[in-house]
Amino acid sequence: MQGESAEPSSGSASPSDLRPLTIARVSKPSGPASDFDVQAHREALVALIRAIEALVLGHGSDAPQGPLSAAFLQPILRLHPRAGCGFFSRSEIIAGYRALLAEEPFQLGERRFVAYLQMRPVRSQSGVTPITVLTKPFPCPGRCVFCPNDVRMPKSYLSIEPGCQRAEANGFDPYLQTYQRLSAFHAIGHATDKAELIVLGGTFSFYPEPYQIWFIKRCFDALNDFGAGLDRRSEADLQRLSLSGVTTRLHGRELGVGYNKVVGKWLQDHAGSDLLRDFEHADFAELAAAQRQNETSRTRNVGLVLETRPDHVDAAEVLRLRRLGCTKVQLGLQSLSDEILAKNQRGHDVAASRRAMHLLRQAGFKLLVHFMPNLLGATPESDVQDFARMFQDAAFRPDELKVYPCSLVESAELMRHYEDGSWHPYTDDELLSVLTQVLLLTPRYCRLSRMVRDISSEDIVAGNRRSNFREVAKDAVRANAGQVEEIRAREIRETHFAGNDAALRTTGYQTSVGDERFIEFVTPEDRLLGLCRLALPSEPAEPGAMPELAGTALLREVHVYGASLALGQKHDVKPQHTGLGRRLVEEAARIASAAGYADLAVISAIGTRDYYRKLGFTDGELYQHLALAG
Questions:
Q1: Do 466 and 317 share a structural domain?
Q2: Which residues contact 253 (CB under 8 A, 6 or more apart)?
Q3: Distance, CA of 307 to CA of 402 (rounded, Å)
Q4: Within this chain, do residues 471 and 379 fall inside the same structural domain, yes or no?
Q5: Tell me: the pLDDT tens digits for 167-204?
Q6: How do residues 305-333 score in pLDDT, each as one tens digit?
Q7: Which domain holds residue 340?
Q8: In whole angstroms, what is the distance from residue 128 CA to residue 328 CA?
Q9: Is the same domain home to 140 and 162?
Q10: Among 463, 490, 517, where does a domain finish?
Q11: Full-prediction pTM beyond 0.85?
Q12: Total structural domains in the chain?
């Protein structure tokens, strides 16, 4: 499947070019301000912090409500420079405030002060803090012609993209990756109490089960340790498996499945090594212990996202995903045309996609689908028709979408088709036409999480190089008086609202499982405050499905938007922690009861179990349940 984001590095290789694979030692990673000596700059920092407080407090009721703009902050920074090396960064000011708070009579309080200095606030404006980690390089069951061959990365990912670089620098160690991202978010002023864990790496289902369990367990270990103020990175700072000694890319035209050959051979050669025998292995009992600890951690997992292919989803895989704690699945459909899938050597057909969607929806997972315009054999017209089927056909209708127009990188087999003229990239006008239709055709119950893959323009041989094409498409829709209803365009983000302005709205639609209710709180301007997804199955689950869900209604998601707040923190004009989540659950329970269900099951994340217990849910084996009044 196509990855979250990726970028290639230069050069290609033939088998004779490959150097021996090596095992690299990973140095301990650090956050943005971890090497900053606060005491060496104490006097300047205290003066700077008090100047910021005085300026904010001097504005009274007109004080800024969010992070200070550069125009607001720069004059103060110039008055209080960092000795010998320019100005203090925001992360250094935050680090200084936290280090000196116990000794200095600061006025604003940590949460308020840090909110003013927060960097990249958009990162947590959907209500949670996203922590993205990558699995190690591993053979892939697919042979997609559009997929790059970078053996330093999991299949379909490229080594120059920042997230991939972080993963490689950490030896793809899940503990180190998770802890580093938490530290980085904390350093730039984001709440880290509610973390959504996003695991990338192509077909997660194709990795060995012990590795899957170990990887997720170590992510939970990092969440738990970070929440407890413990830093065990030095214990994880061991020799890790690394393919950094290999030429970074393999040319698809020369090697075909060269990625699998090289990575598979390396893993086979080291299958009996102490490294693989002593690491990367855990069982479900060990994972369950880490999950129980996370239920009350200060840094809780409120969502676990895993990605896979439709042809690797069956009843056993659905059960395994749920036991891992997964709540959302990224599924690489790419196209709803058997002809296009076959031309691109995708390795599965549309029937497999239907089957996977049905099994996952039956188990209550949130479904994030990948769709790729401009594949080999497609046209702008066929892509629009294909995308329209995504919501016309009840077998699909995903909760979220990532739309990745195909871009050509040199190491992909698609290069051959580009050179012989059988594939060409869409022009800007053609791509704009497709993406504007994507925006218009996406219903209000679906979130367009991404519309362009984040690949460095210098590494694209042919295809779109503009990273802001989403905004270009939105402007085009507005220019033609169109209306965009998808979730991301309507999220409240930092916009303030009055609690009594929230209106309840319900949208119903059919899926292959039964009736679906999309319940949302919106402002009078239709800005989205919070949502929940309720499934009302119309027929008994098929054999092999979760017996725990027999006869139940399913609460598949509850999400309150707005900037992420710390656990227990309240805010008068921000949606989180104002009771909207509880009211959404109550409405879902009312609808399910009226439809004749006696039980409402929720596919809760590990870190939200305690929240649902407070709402009256009791623990089942893999879900939590609320008995409904007759």
A1: yes
A2: 413, 415, 416
A3: 12
A4: yes
A5: 988 888 999 999 999 988 887 777 889 999 999 987 99
A6: 999 999 999 999 999 999 999 999 999 99
A7: 309-490
A8: 14
A9: yes
A10: 490
A11: no
A12: 4
